[in-house]
């Protein structure tokens, strides 16, 4: 076998690997910007490769999502771990909520996964076996420190995020920081001893702004 013939398979394998890397990078950007509704055709176009090339690397969009899943969720899990390592359990809980929601604002696809939108079996298992115990630990630490009201549980942390996520999804284009107003209202409601209310970081929307945000979506 001559040198040219021997190197051709290696070049093809290298090209295939490079195309896969480009497709995953494009998918990462599109999922973050536009969410889970992007198609494999969209990903191929954004990556600058042919649609046929995309389908040779991945059978469908779901395969792309699964390839990115560990990467998408690692940062989110790390936020919970950092919060659990904080010497102040209440500060850790508050920081987790603030940073977790800020991450979801930057990554619409991750926000949809965490909100339970079209979860795969693997993603559902991650929510249940990895994140749910972290949520319980965050809640228990803050409650045992006397900072969190006694009737709040780890499952409440899931639904608090789902509710704030819904506000974020509605307002992210026109008023991306609006969810922070309701996050701070929620934080005050979670305190064992509410005391003086915290200043709200974002003003309320006007009536016209609210109707625009809550109007029909395309």
From TrEMBL:
Entry's transmembrane regions: none
Domain HTH tetR-type: 17-76
PROSITE patterns in UniProt: HTH_TETR_1, HTH_TETR_2
Signal peptide region: none
Region: Disordered, residue numbers: 198-218
Keyword Secreted attributed: no
DNA-binding region: 39-58
GO molecular function, one term: transcription cis-regulatory region binding
Record keywords, A-Z: DNA-binding, Transcription, Transcription regulation
PANTHER family: HTH-TYPE TRANSCRIPTIONAL REGULATOR BETI, HTH-TYPE TRANSCRIPTIONAL REGULATOR RUTR
Protein name according to UniProt: Putative TetR family transcriptional regulator
Species this chain originates from: Microlunatus phosphovorus (strain ATCC 700054 / DSM 10555 / JCM 9379 / NBRC 101784 / NCIMB 13414 / VKM Ac-1990 / NM-1)
Lineage of the organism: Bacteria, Bacillati, Actinomycetota, Actinomycetes, Propionibacteriales
